[in-house]
Design a protein that fits this description.
Order of helices and strands: HHHHHHHHHHHHEHHEEHEHEEE
Number of helices: 16
Strand content: 5-15%
Largest sheet: 5 strands, mixed
Oligomer: single chain
Distance between the termini: 80 Å
Helix content: 55-70%
Radius of gyration: 36 Å
């Protein structure tokens, strides 16, 4: 909504109030109903091009429900019903209006569907408590009911503003920051307006100048939501961000406990339900959040140990697993073999076919190697670039050499197109017996030296590293 359209709407509403006034408030009511509908439409349109789309839609739904509450008041006026006859239905609509508004301000968002379900359950209990209390108080004393309702509304409105302001100050994403800025302005305006009307104009008739203030608030929301101005990104303190992220899950239980505290004097049973619901809700949400955090940590740990292109382990996972493979081989009474594998002329392949095709060749070679190493104790990883590395139990050096030849032959027989002919590999093999006391990391160095010799000898071949002397020096090359 543009500023010019907003001014035109407010001037029209002012003229209707000035010319007709409380004598016939239908015209003012129609404009009151239209204002939140315009705000809801502006919020929905803003959601189309925002990273905070869900939040804008929820805010639009909230102010749209406010129009329904106003429509109920209009029906009461047109039908000539007494105020008490519309109390329950109007209250239900105002309760529904606050549910999405409270959720968008106080719910941390994110998480899995179970965490969101807990948030919604806390809000449902919050407003069920609110509704049951206010409805139970209505037949007792109108003045007391009104005072109780106004007090609870003021507390809730102020907390919604505080929540929105805190999240605005700690948000670094420009779209979400703009949303919480708009929500904080709207929530503050609503709190102040409700406080002013309830304190200074509680008996103002329908169709008076107070209606212009209400429509003005929703027109302001429509202008803010429809604004094309985008505020620049800001750098938020990490400490503040961590504090707010940790504290946001407390907002909904805190709000529920505040409402329970307000009803404790008159309806202690409802207050008890509220306190128990707040504690159980927060505890359940904390447990579910910890489960979700652990799941995400496990996924990150898997990603940190997995090569994203080939799906094999990466160098880090191989280095961490090599000692374990060495110990398992010794327990089995076998030696340990390490095979360093390199794709021949891979740079030429990339230069000829392009990097996307080179990636496909890497994945294909990884699949062939993985298919040849099927035992559970066999380790295979992408060591870096076009290099792969394998570690596995082996009873003797010739067995390891034959395995390297099997890998080489499998890749060659696949006949994957390359810059010159087909894709081939060179393999360097290093082996040590179960009785050798050398560190398994030494095998990697020896396998790398053997790979260098294989490539230097013409590529597409397997080379066995020299055996180690007790002094740690290699003894003669083996081809």
């Amino acid at each position: 909504m543009t500023l010019r359209a907003a001014l035109f709407f407010l001037v029209t509403h002012a003229l209707v109030i000035a010319l007709v006034g409380p004598q016939d408030p239908v015209g003012s009511y129609l404009l009151l109903i239209t204002a939140p509908l315009l705000a809801a439409l502006a919020c929905v349109r803003r959601a189309r091009a925002s990273q905070a789309a869900c939040k804008w839609r929820l805010l639009g739904a909230a102010v749209g429900l406010f129009s329904l509450a106003l429509l109920a008041l209009l029906y009461r006026n047109v039908a000539g019903l007494a105020p008490a006859q519309m109390t329950a239905s109007t209250l239900i609509l105002y309760v529904f209006y606050r549910i999405p508004l409270t959720y968008v301000a106080a719910s941390p968002g994110g998480g899995n569907r179970f965490i969101r379900a807990v948030d919604l359950a806390i809000i449902a209990l919050l407003w069920l408590l609110y509704y049951l209390h206010t409805r139970a108080m209505a037949p007792l004393n109108t003045a007391l009911w009104t005072q109780c309702l106004n007090t609870m509304s003021s507390v809730q409105n102020s907390l919604v503003f505080c929540f929105a302001l805190i999240r605005f100050l700690a948000e670094d994403n420009p779209d979400r920051r703009d949303f919480f800025r708009t929500l904080a302005i709207y929530a503050l305006g609503y709190f102040l307006l409700a406080l002013y009307i309830n304190t200074y104009q509680p008996q103002t008739p329908d169709g008076s100048w107070g209606d212009l203030l209400i429509s003005g608030l929703f027109v302001l929301l429509a202008v803010l939501a429809g604004s094309h101005r985008r505020h620049p990104a800001v750098e938020v303190s990490r400490s503040l961000r961590r504090i707010v992220d940790a504290g946001v899950p407390l907002m909904l239980p805190l709000l529920l406990m505040m409402v329970a505290l307000l009803v404790a004097r008159l309806q202690p049973s409802l207050a008890t339900v509220g306190f128990i619901g707040a504690m159980l809700g927060y505890a359940l949400r904390s447990v579910l959040s910890q489960i979700e955090i652990q799941r995400q940590r496990d996924e990150l740990e898997t990603l940190a140990r997995r090569d994203p292109l080939t799906g094999l382990g990466n160098r880090r996972s191989f280095d961490e697993s090599l000692d374990g493979a060495h110990r398992r081989a010794r327990r089995q009474g076998q030696g340990l073999a390490v095979l360093m594998i390199d794709i021949d002329h891979f740079k030429r392949l990339n230069d000829t076919y392009g990097h996307p095709e080179g990636d496909r060749r890497l994945r294909a070679v990884a699949g062939i190697l993985d298919g040849c190493l099927q035992r559970g104790d066999d380790l295979l990883a992408r060591y870096g670039g076009e290099e792969f590395i394998a570690a596995l139990p082996s009873p003797e050096a010739m067995h390891a050499l034959h395995l390297g030849e099997r890998l080489r032959a499998a890749v060659e027989s696949a006949a994957l197109p390359a810059a010159e002919g087909h894709v081939t590999i060179s393999v360097g093999v290093a082996w040590q017996s179960a009785s050798d006391e050398y560190a398994p990391g030494d095998l990697v160095g020896r396998a790398d030296q053997a790979l260098y010799r294989a490539k230097h000898a013409g590529r597409n071949r397997v080379h066995l590293a020299s055996a180690m002397q007790p002094s740690g020096e290699p003894v003669g090359p083996h081809a």
